């Protein structure tokens, strides 16, 4: 297991902000030589602390700026019912995140679509047709003052 010391924390923070930063710039920001910095980054990658790099997309520019969170309750709490629901969700491109959570509902979904009409289609024609679904509650995102997801 890789030690997450103060320097590694700095490296991870900088790479979280900009995964395309050059090794030379990264080394300068964290106070290491370029070769020492590269070794640390490679070790963080090797141990899967850094599991990948992603582009941060502007969903509004891609005509997918309507965001909603949906809580979903299932009518059957069996493993079979959960597996069937999860397979359906994997097939739905509108679902950007799906989390199995504790509490009064089973799932929390993040939906990204073009507009309210597209959202209504997903809500009614996709999610609403799944036999496992018992309850749906929607939360429409009006703004995101802080969003650090990649």
How are the SSEs ordered, and which strands pair?
Layout (H helix, E strand, L loop, with lengths): L5 H12 L5 H8 L3 H13 L19 E9 L4 H12 L4 E6 L6 E7 L2 H11 L6 E8 L10
Antiparallel strand pairs: 1-3, 1-4, 2-3
Most strands sheet: 4 strands, antiparallel
Task: Quickly count the helices.
Answer: 5
Just name the CATH architecture of the largest domain.
2-Layer Sandwich
- Give the C-level CATH assignment of the largest domain: Alpha Beta
Task: Specify the helix fraction band.
Answer: 25-40%
Mean pLDDT: 94
Class by SSE composition: alpha+beta
Written as H for each helix and E for each strand, in order along the chain, the element string is HHHEHEEHE
By CATH, the superfamily of the largest domain comes out as: Lrp/AsnC effector binding domain/regulation of amino acid metabolism (RAM) domain
Low-confidence stretches: none
- Number of domains as seen in the coordinates: 2
The CATH topology annotation of the largest domain reads as Alpha-Beta Plaits
What amount of the residues lies in strands?
A: 15-25%
**Shape type:** elongated
Estimated radius of gyration: 20 Å
Number of strands: 4
The separation of the N and C termini measures 25 Å
Largest sheet: spatial strand order: 2-3-1-4
Question: What features would you highlight for this structure?
Answer:
150 residues; 4 strands; elongated; Alpha-Beta Plaits; Arc Repressor Mutant, subunit A; 4-stranded antiparallel beta sheet; 20% strand; alpha+beta
